Amino acid sequence: MLTIDAQPGPFTFEPSKTALVVIDMQRDFIEPGGFGESLGNDVSLLAAIVPTVASLLALARREGWLVVHTRESHAADLSDCPPAKRARGAPNARIGDPGRMGRILIRGEPGNAIVDELAPLGSELVIDKPGKGAFYATPLGGELAARGITHLVFAGVTTEVCVQTSMREANDRGYECLLVEDATASYIPAFRQATLEMVRSQGGIVGWTAPFASLAQSHGEKRGWN
Ligand code: TIU
Would you list the DSSP string of 125-183? Predict the structure, then answer.
């Protein structure tokens, strides 16, 4: 067992029963010309966390955690995209419309890929999800249960949309969840901050939060690096 400094208190986990879940670090959200920009957002705010997420991925791989990547994506025929979701995008660049990185938020298009710096390894799980949550209409729950996973460490974008929705879904399914504070970002920084606070409020009503340095420090100590 390993314990790290976190809020609202220490987070203890068994590495062999822990998965890192990296939410939607896709070009569609992080680079100009994709879904994020089509919604009117400044996408440059999200690119800033890529190096920290890369460090977190490296730690998880070194420690032998299960690594899961999610992608928000829809089928080419939009059969898994509720009309209500499509209608609420910007009127001139909706899900499925042509964009600078291919069709917006469509599985297999260049813009739907995870950014190169965080590319999944062949041994890692990649979950395509049509909703904001990682469990809704995906095989994630079954994949985690089959591997005896009990603890989830979350990173990715955006904090208050897909990360928070996924963390709440996980919390309701009984997982102990940690959100890595500097490995998550929002187009609206105040919403990121509010999400961190609401997750850990009321004694950890949704889970724990900690900076990446807490994880790095405890793993360094375990290996005698400090
Ligand atoms: N991945 C994710 O958060 N999808 C979104 O649509 N986020 C927004 O903030 N729009």
Answer: EEEEESSSSSSTTSSHHHHHHHTT--EEEEEEE-IIIIIHHHHHHHHHTT-EEEEEEEE
pLDDT tens column, 87-127: 987 777 899 999 999 999 999 999 999 999 999 999 999 99
Q: Is 226 a domain residue?
A: no
- Please give the Cα distance from 24 to 43 (Å, whole number): 13
Would you say residue 11 lies in a domain? no
pTM over 0.85, yes/no: yes
What's the pLDDT tens digit per position in 81-98? Answer: 999 999 987 777 899 999
Give the domain extent around 183.
Answer: 19-220
Q: Using DSSP bridges, classify how beta strands 125-129 and 66-72 pair: parallel, antiparallel or unpaired.
A: parallel
CA of 12 to the centre of ligand 1 (A): 29
Residue 116, phi then psi, degrees to nearest 5: -55, -40
Pocket test for ligand 1, best of 38, 69, 104, 158 (most atoms within 8 A of CB): 158
To the query of whether residue 81 is one of the catalytic residues in this protein, the response is no
Q: Is residue 1 part of a domain?
A: no
CA angle 192, 167, 151 (to 5 degrees): 125
**Identified catalytic residue from 128, 129, 132, 177:** 129
CATH number for the domain that contains residue 160? 3.40.50.850
Number of domains forming the structure of the chain:
1
9 falls within a domain? no
